[in-house]
Amino acid sequence: MEIQLIDSHCHLDLFNKEGRLNSILDEAAKAGVEQMIAVGTEQSDWAVYSDLANKFKDKIFYTVGLHPGCIEDDWKNQVSAIEAYFKKPMKPVALGEIGLDYFRLPTKKNPAEAERIKLVQKEVFQLQLDLASEQQCPVVIHTRDSFDDTLEEINKSRVSWDNIVFHCFTYGKEEMVQLLELGGRASFTGVITYKNAESVREAALLQGVDRLMIETDCPYLTPVPHRGKENQPAFLKNTAEFCAELFECDIKHLAEVTSKNTREFYFSRK
Predict the structure, then answer these.
(1) Which pLDDT band holds residue 140 (cuts at 50, 70, 90)?
(2) What pTM does this model have?
(3) CA 129, CA 136: separation in Å to the nearest integer?
């Protein structure tokens, strides 16, 4: 059965740097993944993705944003460079991925330093949310071990929750209830196929197939049965097949719904 999928969140800079992008795109097309969104995390990849979006029109789209794990001393200069991309003929389809990540903070060894890092992350996050509000664009949220603070920062901003997607959702039903009540949405990676991810599957079912978006987040989080290998957009088909079983629908319907959701969220606002 022929299907068409959109990888709503991937990282292509490594493939491009190593000269493998064309073959990666070919494999994706064979799997029915005709379009993808290359998501920016730091200044060095924004220009790369802008160029790829121009080179592969209607196949690769891109975002720009400073990931909380990529914050350096000159972060203010980097954030100030984001706005220029929204003035280009080929604009980003979203701002992101941005957010908060407390996973590797030295909370026990150096609590004062951990608090300092949190404050910096929040400042960087809020500044980018301000920019997203000005652009009235979709926002791709990264949140790890920081759900409550992430909600708080978004609520403090002027960004509409209709424009918010929590990418790579790895929380559970309780967090999903909060997200849906606010009006946001989540997208899901290959993590949903993992044996120990029952809470993620419960959250996905709670959100429902009608709001579902799927992603690879490649080259990370490779879905079953390819787990252990480098992830790539072609493997989105495996996540789609798994989700079709999870939501008890056929793969063609799953592909149509997720592609429609992705187009409406990202592309209808350009």
Answers:
(1) very high
(2) 0.96
(3) 10
